[in-house]
Design brief:
Blueprint (H helix, E strand, L loop, with lengths): L4 E3 L3 E6 L2 E6 L9 H16 L5 E6 L23 H9 L5 E5 L3 E2 L1 H8 L2 E5 L3 E3 L13 H8 L2 H10 L3 E2 L9 E3 L5 H14 L16 H17 L5 H14 L2 H16 L2 H15 L18 E4 L3 H12 L4 E4 L3 H20 L5 H9 L1 E4 L10 E4 L5 H14 L5 E4 L6 H5 L8 E6 L8 E5 L6 H13 L3 E5 L7 H18 L3 H11 L5 H8 L1 H10 L1 H4 L7 H8 L25 H14 L8 H21 L6 H12 L8 H8 L1 H14 L1 H7 L4 H8 L9
Parallel strand pairs: 3-4, 4-5, 5-7, 6-8, 7-10, 11-12, 11-14, 12-13, 14-15, 15-16, 17-18
Antiparallel strand pairs: 1-2, 2-3, 8-9, 16-17
Helix pairs in contact: 1-2, 2-3, 4-5, 4-8, 5-8, 7-8, 8-9, 10-25, 11-12, 12-13, 17-24, 18-24, 22-23, 24-27, 27-28
The protein binds acetoacetyl-coenzyme A (CAA).
The site of acetoacetyl-coenzyme A has 24 residues, from helix 3 and helix 10.
């Protein structure tokens, strides 16, 4: 039976003369879900059955071609057949030539679909990629076998191992036609297909190309694998990717596919794959705010003001200039303003030196920045971000002034990292327009933006802020008001424990080594030295009331600061540093301080296992996260994971602290907290009681990700 049209909701077939046009239409991203896979097979079969059809095109009705396999199906136990490789076999084994018209991004299975076609047509502005490695897996629908048959081995390895999107212009060997202008793609593609049919171009399966593993290529694989192993510690998939590509050279196509499939399944069953897939959705879920009316409008942000031209203010300003939004910076004194603007200029020039920006881009960005010392000049801005000294009286003064000069509807944001946003909001007559935008240092680099919702912050101000985060290439996460919000509140027990462990007998280098091995970019002592130990000291000073019941609280860090050892900037902190070198050097004097303080406080020093260090640094941090959920400061555990990965370098292959806890099992986390509560004397009782949220989840046999 032949059909001239099929219009399922996600795949359509339209036969026009000798050409069957298959169009994917599954918003938002043409993920290759079961419905799409069935639709492609149905359309292919109809086209093959129709005697008048001489050629088949596959394209998309959306702006992108396809984002690949439907990731939400991973781990789903339902019957998911036909699987993608099966669908691609139907395409590749077609007796009529199949033409992929790759009108937009083709990622993962989307690119694999194009590779299974016999001819590929795209436009010069397009980018394609195999990003599966970011999901802890490898391309499992023939990508590792077909791409190296078309592209050179180095390109195939780079694309598959890094997952980076690649300009099609670098892949001219993969595409038969690259049309210069996107708007001419369909017209040019139609011409190519018509000619191909008229001239009876053959079916040209990529699988028919043979590859051989000569000595040079074998050497390349060996070297590549060594490099990957060194650069991707903790991740499982990258080396699997190398093995899969190598199989394309070692095995006939069919066997290579089997090897790819086996390696894919090995990846799929790892904690890394679960973590990275969790993180993919976590990052996207961060912008969905429960209870927010979908029709809430976003306010226009065309001009921004920053109060304070220090390092933080300057970094924040750069984010806006980078995306073409004009910024006016306000300082009290012209000299401070000039210094701030000069620092930004220097930062841009440094980027230019590294080849990241052209001279013109530096000029354009600087032209978007202006300065003033007069609040009256802020009357036309749509958003103000205050980044002044972290003191309530100073903030209140600033917000009072902003309230007087800013136009109605302007958003008034504070970059405070600790202060009560609601109190700040009360210094204005418009608390509904006040929000926290907590950037992380360096503000022009770090991807995280904690968006702090005050008691009265309006929904459209929240939605605008989340939208704005995307505009300036940050990931915005909505949090509530409490001391330190989510990130800094959770880092507190981490810092406390690392310090206490030193009193109990661990060295800074042992603690740093354990956390480094876990996957943190640096351990807590190296991090503290880099940030400056005086910063933590000032925070503790402001909170003595809350910590005075624990005389051991960060006592070694306090002593270091009191001796002028404030970290890297002065050449000594928890470690020593040689001038101009960031490499920490262990210092026996620090161990002596710990010994003396331990003796003074009656703490017996002992050998501490790496496992204890890991648990004592991470489980209290997770426990604090549970409290944060309990108090609704974060609305879902995945938001905490996003904050930790983007703000604190928590390894993405662990998925964030809450996903890590789920992976270990919450009953185990609770049991270990209780163990330390019961074995560390008074100190254990003070700090190791499991959160009510953790107790409840364990009692209900739930985990964090199923909790909210
Ligand atoms: N499967 C399921 N859902 C997907 C998806 C996919 N492959 N790609 C995106 N989505 C969903 C997102 O979760 C999001 O959903 P919500 O709106 O509910 O949050 C929605 O589509 C839009 O996605 P983005 O917000 O990311 O949209 P964007 O325009 O910023 O980016 C994109 C578009 C570049 C395609 C980006 O979504 C992306 O990188 N997607 C994943 C690409 C990928 O990793 N593909 C490989 C899949 S695995 C595979 O193909 C295995 C194999 O070998 C068979």
């Amino acid at each position: 039976m032949s059909q001239n049209t099929i219009t399922s909701s996600v795949v359509s077939l339209e036969i026009s003369g000798a050409i069957a046009n298959i169009t994917l239409n599954s918003a938002p991203v043409n993920a290759l879900s079961k419905a799409v896979r069935l639709g492609i097979i149905e359309a292919m079969n109809a086209a093959l059955d129709n005697a008048s059809v001489k050629g088949i095109t596959i394209t998309s009705s959306l702006a992108l071609f396809s984002a690949g396999a439907d990731i939400s199906e991973f781990g789903n136990a339902d019957d998911l057949s036909p699987m993608l490789p099966e669908v691609l076999n139907v395409v590749e084994n077609s007796t009529k030539p199949v033409f992929a018209i790759v009108n937009g991004n083709a990622f993962g299975g989307g690119l694999e679909l194009a590779l299974a076609c016999h001819y590929r047509i795209t436009h010069a502005k397009n980018r394609v990629g195999l990003p599966e490695v970011h999901l802890g897996i490898l391309p499992g629908a023939g990508g590792t076998q077909r791409l190296p048959r078309l592209a050179d081995v180095q390109t195939a390895l780079d694309m598959i191992v890094t997952g980076a999107p690649t300009s099609v212009q670098k892949l001219d060997i993969v595409f038969d036609v690259i049309v210069e202008k996107p708007e001419h793609l369909f017209e040019q593609a139609a011409k190519f297909v018509a000619t191909a049919i008229e001239e009876e171009f053959p079916v040209k399966p990529v699988s028919a190309i043979t590859l051989n593993l000569d000595a040079k290529t074998a050497g390349l694989f060996e070297k590549y694998a060594q490099g990957v192993a060194a650069k991707t510690k903790g991740f499982f998939a990258p080396l699997q990717c190398v093995k899969a590509v190598k199989a394309a050279f070692e095995l006939p196509f069919e066997d290579g596919l089997k090897r790819e499939s086996a390696l894919f399944m090995e990846c799929m069953n790892t904690p890394q794959a679960r973590a990275q897939q969790h993180f993919f959705f976590a990052e996207r879920a961060a912008s969905h705010v429960q209870g927010m009316d979908k029709n809430t409008k976003v306010r226009d942000i065309k001009k921004v003001a920053i109060i304070g031209a220090g390092t933080m203010g300057g970094g924040i300003a750069m984010n806006f200039a980078n995306v073409g939004i004009p910024v006016v910076m306000l300082e009290m004194k012209q000299e401070a303003l000039d210094k701030g603007l000069a620092l930004i200029h220097k930062n841009y020039l440094n980027s230019a030196k590294k080849g990241k920006l052209s001279e013109q881009q530096v000029t354009d960005r600087m032209n978007l920045l202006s300065g003033t010392t007069d609040y009256a000049d802020l009357g036309d801005v749509d958003l103000v971000i205050e980044a002044v000294f972290e003191k309530m009286s100073v903030k209140k003064e600033v917000f009072g002034a902003l309230d007087r000069v800013c136009k109605p509807g302007a958003i008034l944001a504070s970059n405070t990292s600790t202060l009560d946003l609601n109190e700040i909001a009360q210094s204005t007559s418009r608390p509904q327009d006040v929000i926290g935008l907590h950037f992380f240092s360096p503000a022009n680099v770090m991807k995280l933006l904690e968006i702090v919702r005050g008691a009265q912050t309006a929904d459209d101000v929240i939605k605008t802020s989340l939208h704005l985060a995307k505009t300036i290439n940050k990931v915005g996460v909505l949090v509530g008001v409490c001391f330190g919000f989510v990130g800094n509140r959770m880092i507190e027990p981490y810092g406390r424990e690392s310090n206490r462990l030193m009193l109990e007998g661990a060295s800074p280098e042992q603690v740093d080594r354990v956390l480094g091995k876990f996957g943190m970019p640096m351990g807590p002592f190296t991090m503290g030295d880099m940030a400056g130990l005086d910063i933590g000291y000032f925070v503790r000073e402001s909170r003595r009331e809350f910590i005075k019941h624990d005389p051991s609280y960060c006592i070694v860090a306090d002593k270091l600061v009191e001796q002028g050892r404030v970290g890297l900037k002065c050449g000594k902190g928890a470690y020593l540093y040689e001038a101009g070198n960031r490499q920490p050097i262990p210092d026996p004097a620090v161990i002596d301080i710990a010994k003396q303080e331990a003796a003074r406080l009656g703490i017996k020093q002992r050998d501490i296992s790496d496992q204890e260090i890991l648990e004592r640094c991470l489980y209290p941090l997770i426990n604090e996260g549970a409290d944060i959920l309990h108090e609704n400061i974060a609305s879902k555990s995945s938001d905490i994971d996003v904050i930790y990965v983007y703000g604190y370098g928590f390894p993405v292959f662990r998925g964030g602290p809450m996903q890590y806890a789920d992976e270990i099992g919450l009953a185990e986390v609770k049991a270990r907290l209780e163990y330390y509560r019961d074995t560390l004397g008074e100190y254990g009782k003070q700090w190791f009681s499991p959160s009510p949220m953790l107790n409840q989840l364990v009692a209900d046999n739930k985990n964090f990700s199923s909790s909210k």
